[in-house]
UniProtKB/TrEMBL annotation:
Protein name: Acid sugar phosphatase
GO cellular component, one term: cytoplasm
Cited NCBIfam families: HAD-SF-IIA
The species this protein was found in: Paractinoplanes tereljensis
A Pfam family matched in the record: Hydrolase_like
Family matches, as Gene3D superfamilies: HAD superfamily/HAD-like (3.40.50.1000)
Molecular-function annotations in GO: phosphatase activity
Transmembrane intervals: none
Amino acid sequence: MSDDLASGYDLVIFDLDGVVYLIDKPIPGAAEAVERLRADGTPVAYATNNASRRAADVAALLTGMGVPAQPDEVLNSAGAAAAVLAQRFPAGSPVLVVGAEALRAEVREVGLTPVSTFEDQPVAVVQGYGPEVGWQILAEAALSVRAGATWVATNTDRTLPSPRGPLPGNGSLVAVLRTALDREPDLVVGKPEPGLFTTAASLSNSERPLAVGDRLDTDIQGAVGAGMDSLLVLTGVSGPAELLAAPPERRPTFVSADLSGLFRPADEARLPLRAEEAGGWRLAGAALSGEGDPVTALRLLCGTVWDGVPLKDLTADSPAATDLFKNWGL
């Protein structure tokens, strides 16, 4: 019986952007990680806030990247939002869609009627990410919500990862309406709400799932809210400085540089690490010295910061520690 991190769980739920791929390119090692889990008999699922692709399209994209996936393994916020609307409104009701064609298709599939103008008298506005979203549809949405339409957001990710760095996400587009309307959406469906995680676990009859993500404010907070252990990988949005400053509801169980951490001992990734020395690093109070694996240093620092030492009081007492602090923006 293996004693690696993944072996302690009966389901691994992956976020996609920043974990498995960046936009449309696989992250190195991701395909191998999923293949190894499947070979070990560990079920996988994919839970994404991205509402610009349908589940079947996501599965096809993953398969094309060398990550075999079935549509029923993919849960996305577009499908979840459409399902919520179908529960609230009669069949055929007009729903103004702000987002990609995938979101319109999900709304249509549950028996509602996608529309695009205030004059269509929509009973609801559903807003998801779409690269073509512009002022005109946002204006129609603002008029509709102000007239009484229910406002549902698929997710509120402020940014989405890309090879060039973080780009505006659906949360940034939601902020446009929030500013214009001076109010919050009536409902946010995706992470950090726990629904995608709990649904994935239920569909797999999982009793001990592990959520894997790159964002503290969505993936990790959603896992904490769902009562699940979580692994933060440092291949996407959230970095070391954000992890050190994370409040309790955004603190993962584990951290690793990438998905290879799934196949190393759990104790090499567990947070926080409370010790004076580990892996070539030494922590004396708030001073870090020595050299070694950056993730080990991060785990040590999480131990002291989460115990109450202010982030601003951390100091670097070796050349390697100085380089780390500079790279991390500390």
